[in-house]
Design goal:
This protein is mainly beta. Helices cover 11% and strands 38% of the residues. Strand 23 and strand 24 form a beta hairpin. 39% of the residues are buried.
Length: 360
């Protein structure tokens, strides 16, 4: 039994540091992609075994960009800014990305550890984004593509917080949805707030939309419909020099000292990672693995849950060529949530390699 003398407060601090690191990394990865990466960079992972495009119909409650940017000339000043006015709950659709702001609220504190500065308050926006394509992975960066603007034309960038349900940035597989909150810090009493959105992943063009955070729209929800293979426990997928297997999945109520929060459970996944190449292989559960539900919410590795494992996956040293390593990883998810997917991102700097395993 692993204990290591950790208490819940230390574990929460570790989780907060990790979220801030992941959020910053997401912005970095997004900026690399915006500079010109595409889904043609890599081949998709292949399953190891023996042996219709998405509709383009525009539903009610959808705001479509009537004016789009021309082919980039290389000079950002030559691009056309196309703007769509929308309200909370309206789905805005670009060429490849759909996005909706579901709700917005103001608060001076987030969780137990994050307080706004004196005279300031947080604006917390619950959002969703979807890859509309049927066959291309895309990049979405909330840090680069979302800005808050007030009635006096002041603009505010996203704030990094320790919110448990932060919107995940990064690669979106075809049909994949990401959902969570983005947070901005503004002077108290600021009025006329709107969300400025860039739906274009290119650094050389702009597809703009404005969401009025004080108005209510249709309330339509983005639906995830993955257009990539979804594997099952027992399946093995190989990418480059990594062979990855989900052996089994179970739930846990915790150990002697730590357990899940009320309404939650620990989800424990047994995996095997094999190095089929001729160089050392480093795998980071911190950066490469997460659990995702059908609404697009992501659940990261839980340090509280990991502390209760007897067979935690070891990550202190690389996996040697021709060798493999087996162990358990753990997440904290809402009790009984289904379906749930384990997401493996084989290469966080490439597109087209994100792989899904159905856990239940």
């Amino acid at each position: 039994m692993m204990n290591n003398g950790l208490n819940r407060e230390q574990l929460r601090d570790d989780t907060g540091s990790r979220r801030r690191y992941l959020a910053a990394l997401s912005g970095l990865v997004g900026s690399v992609a915006l500079a010109g990466c595409s889904s043609t960079d890599v081949d998709a992972p292949d399953e190891v075994s023996d042996s219709d495009d998405e509709s383009t119909d525009t539903p009610a409650g959808t705001a479509t960009l009537e004016e789009t940017s021309p082919e980039p000339s290389g000079d950002p000043a030559d691009t056309v800014r196309g703007t769509v006015d929308a309200a909370l709950g309206d789905v805005i659709e670009g060429d490849r990305l759909a996005l909706v702001a579901y709700s917005a609220e103001r608060t001076t504190s987030i969780g137990d550890f994050t307080e706004a500065d004196a005279g300031q308050e947080f604006v917390v926006v619950d959002m969703g984004a979807k890859n509309r394509t049927a066959d291309e992975s895309i990049r979405f960066s909330s840090f680069l593509q979302l800005t808050l603007r007030d009635g006096e034309s002041y603009e505010y960038d996203q704030t990094i917080t320790v919110a448990d349900n932060t919107l995940d940035s990064g690669e979106l597989a075809p049909g994949e949805v990401t959902r969570g909150v983005v947070v901005f810090e503004v002077p108290q009493g600021t009025t006329g707030l709107s969300l400025e959105i860039d739906l274009d992943e290119s650094a050389f063009s702009y597809q703009g939309a404005t969401v009025d955070l004080g108005a209510s729209g249709s309330g339509r929800t983005l639906t995830q419909d993955l257009q990539v293979p979804v594997y099952d426990p027992g399946d093995t997928v190989e990418y480059d020099q990594t062979r990855f297997t989900v052996n089994s999945v179970r739930t846990s109520t915790g150990g002697e000292y730590f357990g899940p929060d009320a309404g939650s459970e620990f989800l424990v996944v047994d995996i095997t990672v094999a190095n089929t190449g001729d160089e050392e292989l480093n795998v980071s559960t911190l950066l490469q693995l997460s659990v995702k539900d059908d609404a697009g919410r992501s659940y990261d590795i839980s340090y509280t849950a990991m502390s209760t494992l007897d067979r935690e996956l070891s990550q202190g040293r690389p996996i040697q060529p021709g060798s493999q390593r087996r162990g358990e990883i753990a997440f904290e998810t809402p009790r009984g949530r289904s379906p749930l997917y384990l997401v493996m991102d084989f290469d966080v700097f490439a597109e087209g390699d994100k792989t899904f395993f159905s856990l239940r």
